[in-house]
Amino acid sequence: MNIQVEVQNVSLQYKNFPALKNISFTLAESKIYGLIGRNGAGKTSLLSLLASFREPTSGKILINGEEPFENPLVMEQVCFIYEKDYKDESEDVSTLLETAERYRSHYDKDYAHKLMQRFKLPMNKPLKSLSRGMQSVFNVVTGLASRCPITILDEAYLGMDAPTREIFYQELLADQENHPRIFILSTHLVSEMDYLFDKVLILDRGSLILQENYEDFISRGSSLTGPAEVVDEFVHSLQKLNEQKLGNTKSVMIYDTLSEGQQRAAQAKGLQIGPVSLQELFIHLTKEEE
Ligand SMILES: Nc1ncnc2c1ncn2[C@@H]1O[C@H](COP(=O)(O)OP(=O)(O)OP(=O)(O)O)[C@@H](O)[C@H]1O
């Protein structure tokens, strides 16, 4: 079943603070969406609206045409994984997994057990006694095994070491291949996780400044390097995001698709054209004036 999320002119106000400003977008395909933004940009606020933890101050969220807030049938389609405080949780891991199964209609118990083994998560220990990284593993396992049509992972990797994060990414991609759904991943580990994203959403100070296919977005960034005066002349009508100079060699990051003709012209002038990463584009597109 194809599920659709529509966010229509959504704003969220905390007292006098506008955390989200008139945001609209549609997620209509079973893809992996990367939600990125600087600290305080509004990522968790947006995700908590999608998960119906709160209501927008204005605007509408529709999941398959229905408002999800206090609507259990719609909410069953959404799974929100975020960092939780388990200090008062006395149950062991296996009991909590059984509880997860009871509340999730798409839950795959065998898959959950397979993941537990792969991550080497101890089944018979109280969850509160596990390390922070292992508690995150538990969250991710319940998130993946729930197989919710909309699965939201808000910085789900917190505390995981690099090899554990790698297993998480591998399992996510493998399960998405076999059971496609809408995954929304919010992250600060942009350069580490960018290869997972089919599409990218960028929040900047409460506004959505970009929603685009990852590949299309990346292809609009390039770096041009060469003698300073040649580079300056070439880029003068292009949108520049950043520049660096070492002696007379200059490198300029541009945010404009270069046509084949422009690429040939740049090469003919002896300029080197290089790729730009999602992280670099993100840093410079959300840079504040100094
Ligand atoms: N309950 C609240 N009451 C008042 N302000 C809040 C509340 N929750 C969040 N905010 C503010 O709203 C803004 C957005 O916060 P949010 O947690 O959504 O950002 P974020 O992009 O998830 O940040 P980070 O990447 O640092 O986790 C921040 O300025 C934050 O201080």
UniProtKB/TrEMBL annotation:
Alphabetical list of InterPro entries matching this protein: AAA+_ATPase (IPR003593), ABC_transporter-like_ATP-bd (IPR003439), ABC_Transporter_VariousFunc (IPR051782), P-loop_NTPase (IPR027417)
MF terms in GO: ATP binding; ATP hydrolysis activity
Nucleotide-binding keyword on record: yes
Keyword ATP-binding: yes
Residue ranges of domain ABC transporter in the record: 5-230
PANTHER family: ABC TRANSPORTER ATP-BINDING PROTEIN ALBC-RELATED
Protein name per UniProt: ABC transporter domain-containing protein
